[in-house]
Amino acid sequence: MQRQDIYRTHCVSCGARFTDANVWSEVGWIETQVSGLCEACFDSVASLFELIARDEDGNAIDEDSGSSR
Predict the structure, then answer these.
(1) Which listed residue, of 5, 25, 28, 38, carries a Cα 20 to 30 Å from 45's Cα?
(2) Greater confidence, 57 or 46?
């Protein structure tokens, strides 16, 4: 049986086709195949994680100790 490569062509979040309009970097193109997200959606998700990783005063939380930096 011959191996068939499967490539994602659309973002799993917004449904847009991957183009230079929503994927800007070489790493972004690789990320489309890893996560299925266009770079615009990936950046939105990453910014949400940054918000979650802050305490109520907006200070970054040290992941190792659980305390603010």
Answers:
(1) 5
(2) 46
**How far apart, in whole angstroms, are the C-alpha atoms of residue 14 and residue 38?**
8
**Single-letter amino acid, residue 53:** A
Cα distances (angstroms) measured from residue 58 to each of 11, 16, 45, 46: 31, 33, 18, 16
Q: Which residue's entry shows tokens 């266009």?
A: 38
Cβ neighbors of 13 (< 8 A, separation 6 or more) are 36, 37, 38, 41, 45
Q: Is 23 exposed, middle or buried (0-12, 13-18, 19+ CB in 10 A)?
A: buried
